[in-house]
Design a protein that fits this description.
7-stranded parallel β-sheet; globular
Length: 257
């Protein structure tokens, strides 16, 4: 990572942590955010901050300053489909990738999601060779964005993290004391932020090269077992699961590490 120029489009919970780790390893790091406070945080840590906003028809901000001379670009922006379900994520990525090509940034890492795979009753296992089969709007939009990256970059890596945990972030906080929680027997697919970022650091350093990487670090326990134990660990009330329902789920497997 030493002396490489690395840009992170989207310095959120994962991207900001990655920026700090890259800086520590001697990388020249640039990051983007739409949040003024986050831009100041980046600056305070010796990271060049850029306010860049991808819209459907136009990209706002200093794209040239951000992209010019980069060795590696990490794209870590959410599809933003909760706020705007009609948003065309793939076309925003495509618009940005035209600039990435123009400024000749060869290596592109795209932080995708395991929601490209469908939850099913027979609890299928999906590894890096599995063909994405999501039928949800969200899943389909992320699949389309992955394809754009693969078509428009000569050296791309798609990283698909499972549900992210770490620090004070854990799904039990949302599930605690809820009743009627579905799919008690379905396996948990989770990964720590540190694990995801260690994979990204390996990809940037050339110690790992795979077109697609699944990031999963936690054991595939059943949701019921896992969240009941997590509730105890966090000192929260355990969620109550629906026992008689069908269980829908999937098992995300990584053959890379």
């Amino acid at each position: 990572v030493m002396n490489k120029h690395i840009g992170i489009l989207g310095c959120g919970w994962l991207g900001y942590d990655l920026a700090l780790k890259l800086k520590k390893q001697g990388g020249e790091v640039r990051g983007t955010s739409r949040n003024a406070e986050k831009l100041l945080q980046l600056l305070a840590n010796g990271i060049q901050g850029f306010e860049i906003d991808l819209q459907e028809d136009k990209i706002y901000g200093d794209v040239q300053g951000f992209l010019e001379g980069l060795d590696v670009l990490v794209i870590d922006i959410p599809p933003g489909l909760h706020k705007n379900p009609k948003s065309d994520f793939a076309s925003r990525i495509q618009l940005f990738m035209r600039f990435v090509q123009a400024y000749q940034v060869n290596k592109v890492l795209f932080i995708s999601s395991t929601s490209v795979f469908e939850d099913l009753e027979d609890i299928p296992s999906y590894d890096e060779n599995s063909i994405p089969n999501a039928t949800s709007d969200n899943g389909k939009k992320i699949i389309a964005a992955e394809l754009v990256i693969q078509e428009m970059s000569s050296q791309s890596n798609i990283i698909r993290p499972c549900g992210l945990i770490g620090g004070d972030r854990h799904p039990i906080k949302m599930l605690a004391s809820r009743s009627g929680v579905k799919n008690p027997k379905a396996p948990v697919n989770l990964v720590t932020r540190d694990h995801v970022n260690s994979l990204i650091l390996k990809l940037i350093a050339g110690k790992l090269d795979a077109p697609v990487v699944h990031a999963v670090s936690e054991p595939h326990k059943s949701r019921q077992d896992y969240y009941q134990k997590a509730a105890i660990e966090f000192g929260l009330e355990s969620p109550v699961f629906e026992e008689n329902e069908k269980n829908l789920g999937k098992r995300i497997i990584s053959s890379v590490v």
